[in-house]
Amino acid sequence: MLIDGSTRIVGVFGHPIAHTASPAMHNAAFDHLGLNWRYLAFDVPPDDLRGALRGICDLGFVGVNLTVPHKLLAVKMVEEVDKQALLLGSVNTIVAENHQLTGYSTDGYGFVRALREDFGMELRGRRVLMLGAGGAGRALALHCALEGAAAVFVVNRTQSKAVSVVADIRKLTPRTFAVALPMDAKSIARHLDEVDLVVNATSLGLRPGDPPPLAKFPSRCKRLRVYDTIYRPVETRFLAAARKAGAQTANGLSMLLHQGARSFEIWTGRRAPVAVMRRALHKAVYG
Ligand code: ATR
User: Fold this and answer.
1) Which atom of ligand 1 is nearest to the CA of 213?
2) pTM
3) Does the C-beta of 170 come closer than 6 Å to ligand 1?
4) Is 71 a catalytic residue?
């Protein structure tokens, strides 16, 4: 790795950020393609985000990724927002050009590619149970509707957020039946038989002592696909319960990979070397 006067810089802003595996994934891709580019991680508290974004213009960065807690805040801090990012109200990729910032969202793309790769599944016509209506849950639920899902059931501890996501889906499209459900095992169980896909987009499972967002799956639920946006640990209690009941399961590493690959393509204009990025990501996350 050579860093010199013409090295192009991209990176990620988050808070906290120490755990990020994105530098490993992107730098492996730059090395593979022989690009004199580097990807760095920056711990940026929310109050400093505006200044840090001006800084990337002044310093000539190509752009940055944004992660928790910046994705929603940044929508108002960029000059231009692409259509999908505007719709989702969330920006995870920024391009800095001629002192102008443009915001994109590649999370939905990552989700769609992940489902295709892990389950051979398209969202069109599917019925989805979304657990979580925070930043991630909202974006994924809306994305299901954008992709033509037949139904999205949104479950969240704070019911008002689920109701608000459902209202946004209804504004977006009349094609997708959307309803908010309370986060209780009984009402969820009633819907498990009629959905194709269950997604955990809550943060439950990140910490070792967390209860799973859903602990019981119907027995012999072979046609059910269960996706956890969490990828560390490799199998959460939620995913283990689903697997034991016979469901097909996958964790969020594929989504992280594909959203990153799309950001890479936006910045470089080159096709992302996905296999190289996958290997680097796997090694950084699981050793
Ligand atoms: P992210 O951007 O990763 O989605 P977030 O916006 O803070 O982060 O959302 C976290 C999600 O996990 C929310 O759906 C949250 O539920 P609330 O909206 O009710 O806060 C959910 N969550 C976090 N801790 C939880 C817990 N102990 N029980 C149930 N849900 C929880």
Assistant:
1) 29
2) 0.95
3) no
4) yes
